[in-house]
Amino acid sequence: MFNIEDYNYELPPGLIAQVPVSRRDHSRLLVVDRLSRAFSHNRFFDLPKLIRPGDLLVINDTRVVPARLFGRKESGGRVEILVLEHPDSLETGPTSRICLLKSSKRPRNGIILFFDSGISGQVTEVLGNGFVKIAFKGNGSIDSLLEEKGHLPLPPYIKREQEDRYKDLDKVRYQTIFSERKGAVAAPTAGLHFTRDLIEKLEEAGISLVSLTLHVGYGTFGPVRTKDIRKHQLGEETYCLEQETVEAIACTKEEGGRVVAVGTTVVRALETAARPHGSIMPGTGKTDLLITPGFSFNVVDALITNFHLPKSSLLFMVSAFAGLKLIRDTYALAIERGYRFYSYGDAMLIL
Hints:
With 351 residues, the protein is α/β, with parallel strands linked by helices. 21% of the residues lie in helices and 26% in strands. The protein is globular, with a radius of gyration of 21 Å.
């Protein structure tokens, strides 16, 4: 249960979704009942019929920053960075940020990197595993440059060239329709399936929707290098829970409804802010909560999520929620039925 190899599986490469379906809510939805261990195959637009009136959907309204930037070294060699730290608003001057640096040689202190718009950066600290701290200089801010020239940091299993014909599509479809608060370096992918029309149908069916913010960081997707999954350490991610959302959750619980988390990021935020008996503390904080089998869920009653990578912390979480054996059976069925996997893939609803 805690051995990393328990979370490995073989996925045919052809099932890794490279582009989204033509309409967000036309992705497939595999429903998993934890009590009966039964499965049903649906489309995402069937969601209003699959959950009950009085249930509450909680979504993540974070917005992905175009944090991937190309530049060059003093030697002329090409370099790529992923800026991992983002303030709430655009800065007026240069700043220092932790970044993930990709280049042909290992980074070292003092090297100068050159980017567009007259902005340069100097590596001031090498943190290991490709992480560095860069002090940016120039007439403008690094945040303005990212908004102007940055690329969305698509996961490496979505294959794109630097100038790709899907660039405009990715700008729209790798953001949820809820995305408002900038700060994430990856999309909360369970939310990618929602449309305005679907939300209207959910509301007509007596199903409410509230939001929170958790800025998805690189640590959520970082490789697990420990044999015992409980020893894996996640990077901190910032979250914000408004009083309105906390009150809606409390009201739902009191009236017998279920709290349906739209994505693993929502689970982490809610369970981090939860007290032992299910009440939640509103406010802003940071979480490095790692959820593995044996975890006691205090808030979340049901979960909408995509299919996750082998040996990933996200797979640990869904296995904690539904049981490792049931998740292994679910993934085997999804592969057999040709479901599309990962960020642009299909979804599952765990009840």
